[in-house]
Amino acid sequence: MNYRRKQDPAVAEAAADHRRREDAAPRLREEAPRLQTLRLKIEEIRAEGRVTAMSYVRPIVVATAPAHFEFRCTEPKCDGRHDLTAPILRALRQSLGSCSGESSCAGVIGNVMCDRTLAYVAEATYRA
Q: How far is Cα of residue 20 from the mean position of the Cα atoms in its chain?
């Protein structure tokens, strides 16, 4: 018996689009040549009462990573994304040790706007 779930074509296409954007992006080592390590702390917050929906840390492999920082909303029914590329690259080009910010989700769940916010902290080290 085959127990694999059939993947939603829209989800598959969104994942393929994401991979194409990553592939088209310049490499991180080209955008920030002195960058040695990068770690992103991500926390997704629900609007009602600012309750944390999910948090995690994502280490970035600087040697091979694309200079593209885009995250899907963690609400399973939401189609939104958070593109943090511009503010993170700005900080890395300035050789900042850390930067932080928030991104409100612009996605839709059914007919309702998503109420989640992504808070992030990027921590970096650099070669002398």
A: 15
The region, left, alpha or beta by phi > 0 then psi within -120 to 50, assigned to residue 127 is beta
Q: Which of 38, 73, 44 is nearest to 59 (CA)?
A: 38
Distance CA 22, CA 25 (A): 5
Whether 9 maps to a domain, the answer reads no
| Residue 17 falls inside a structural domain | no
Which residues span the domain enclosing 31? 27-126
The model's pLDDT over 11-68, given as tens digits with 9 standing for 90+, comes to 677 777 778 888 788 999 999 999 999 999 999 888 776 667 778 999 999 999 999 9
- The pair of structure tokens assigned to 109 is 């769940």
- Answer whether 12's CB lies under 8 Å from 104's CB: no
Q: What single letter denotes the amino acid at residue 40?
A: L
Number of domains observed in the structure of the chain? 1
